[in-house]
Design goal:
With 184 residues, the chain is an all-alpha fold. It is built from six helices and no strands.
Length: 184
């Protein structure tokens, strides 16, 4: 039974990976976003002076849901590339940048650590770029799925940086959120 898989078998294998990865990435992103009040549900964030380029509040959940679906598909594509050289490194880089992604919302919106959150975005972007290059060596489609995420992270970094510039007292503006919104 050690033959080459048919195209149908490869598609089914990818579909199985996608059925695991996409919902998992979306769920983890959702839980991170709901772990503390964020966006317009956050009194601290509402009190901040925001950069002129800040999109309307509804853009963020739409953008992040779309990006998380694309990230899940990119990861599924790489996980489906069994035996590919560099697959373990690519998955490790993805996991590292995604862990930082999940940490950003509680850090920024919950702890009000604007400067630390900016550092996290910079490292996350660097790891996401490295992930994209690693994905490209395995499956070009996975790398292309990462590109909108890279653009959004760069934009989010600019927003984070400008919030810090416009609000030097951001950490003391309003007491930090200490309750979880996961069940609420």
């Amino acid at each position: 039974m050690g033959g080459i898989a048919s195209k149908s078998q490869l598609r089914m294998s990818f579909a199985r990976w996608a059925l695991v990865c996409v919902p998992l990435i979306v769920l983890l992103g959702f839980l991170s976003g709901r772990s503390v009040p964020s966006g317009n549900d956050n009194a601290w964030y509402q009190a901040l002076t925001k950069p002129e380029i800040t999109p309307p509040g509804w853009v963020f959940p739409v953008a992040w849901t779309t990006l998380y679906i694309m990230l899940g598909l990119a990861l599924a594509t790489i996980l489906n590339a069994r035996g590919a050289r560099g697959r373990g490194l690519a998955v490790g880089l993805f996991a590292a940048q995604f862990a930082l992604n999940l940490a950003w919302t509680p850090l920024f919106f919950g702890a009000h650590k604007v400067g630390t959150a900016l550092l996290v975005i910079v490292v996350m972007l660097a790891l996401a770029i490295a992930t994209t290059f690693a994905f490209d060596r395995i499956r070009k489609a996975a790398a292309w799925l990462m590109l909108p995420y890279l653009v959004w992270l760069a934009f989010a970094g600019v927003l984070n940086w400008r919030v810090g510039q416009l609000n030097p007292d951001a950490e003391t503006l309003v007491p930090g959120a200490r309750t979880s919104q996961v069940l609420g």
